[in-house]
Amino acid sequence: MDIDDILAEVDGDVVPQETRDLHDLTRAWINERSSPEVLPWPESLMERMMDRIRQQIDLVETQTGDMDPKTNFRLIIIETELERFKFLVRSFLRTRIAKIDKHALYILTNPSHKSRLSSSELQYLTTHQSILHAHYRSSFLSQFPAQLQRLDDTAGGISMIEQPDMDKAVFVRALRDIHEPVVVDGTDIAFEMGRGNIFVVRWSAVRELVLAGDAELM
Questions:
Q1: CB burial readout 151-178, b (16+ within 10 A) else e
Q2: CA angle 64, 65, 67 (to 5 degrees)
Q3: Which end of the chain, N or C, is less packed with Cβ atoms under 10 Å?
Q4: DSSP H/E element including 192
Q5: Residue 12: Cβ-neighbour burial (10 angstroms; 0-12, 13-18, 19+)
Q6: 190: enclosing H helix or E strand
Q7: Is 175 within 8 Å of 215 (Cβ atoms)?
Q8: What pLDDT does residue 67 have?
Q9: For 156, which DSSP code?
Q10: pLDDT value at 5 more than 70
Q11: Residue 118 clears pLDDT 70, i.e. is over it
Q12: ∠ CA 165-161-172 to the nearest 5 degrees?
């Protein structure tokens, strides 16, 4: 029995919000690291996590220097928890930034993917891409004929825009019984997923299940 099974058996009002947020952040982090494309930004979750981190930092700064052993021990526990939160948030953001850098033009030209970014990520993407294009232009693109200066050229049936590999193999675990058959495009493979079942399958086959929260990556 893992944390998903425990939380599923406990009334949602009984489990502290902080525990659920940490669980949701961990799941979002693993999903982001395992998927080939950038996933939707969990805005409300990240707002709560950032508020909690700021509150804990303020608490540590306020109580630092207190010589009471009990208070100092409590601060050690808070600082340990704080570092865990900060690690997850940093790794989550770095993973998303790496994907944004790798698939910048694809995201900019794909409204559905562009809408998955936070306002800060979108600002970073547009600014970074503008600076990068200006650098390329001043370095070598300006010496090419006009028709060869585009970075998103698709002439000749070959696209210069790097896209996520939707056929990447991923480990996926069902979070509920999924009665509709999961079909792997281009093959005759179709299967059902029961709650807790784990499969290795193409990302494209389980993409919608993960986005809907019916499955998670591992």
A1: eeeeeeeeeebeebeeeeebebbbbeeb
A2: 120
A3: N
A4: strand 190-193
A5: exposed
A6: strand 190-193
A7: yes
A8: 59
A9: G
A10: no
A11: yes
A12: 15
3-state secondary structure of 191: strand
Q: Tokens for 159, please give them.
A: 């696209």
Exposure string of 115-138, with b = 16+ CB inside 10 Å and e = fewer, is ebbeeebbebbeeebeeeeeeeee
Nearest to 35 by CA among 95, 91, 90: 95
The DSSP 8-state label assigned to residue 148 in this structure reads G
Q: Give pLDDT tens digits for 123-154.
A: 999 998 888 888 877 777 777 776 666 666 66
The yes-or-no verdict on residue 60 having pLDDT over 60 is: yes
pTM of the predicted model, to two decimals?
0.83
